Amino acid sequence: MLSANSELVDKCIGSRIHIVMKSDKEIVGTLLGFDDFVNMVLEDVTEFEITPEGRRITKLDQILLNGNNITMLVPGGEGPEV
What we know:
- Keywords: Acetylation, mRNA processing, mRNA splicing, Nucleus, Ribonucleoprotein, RNA-binding, Spliceosome.
- LSm subunits form a heteromer with a doughnut shape.
- One of its GO terms (molecular function) is RNA binding.
- The protein is mainly beta.
- It contains one helix and five strands; from the N terminus they run H-E-E-E-E-E.
- The radius of gyration is 12 Å and the shape is globular.
């Protein structure tokens, strides 16, 4: 049986989500799946990172994201404002 939080994340499978990380990174991608620890597989990913030189944007086909580093999930989010 899924917990209430897991049920909310489960509803996001196949949808775009905006993820705020503990570090200076934010990630936007399509959620393919997750496990009990909220480790996530995402595709069509854009990673936004704040560096001393400014904002760096990286495009990735697919990633496995460690759930321990997630601060917040925004279903349907499009990422940080430019």
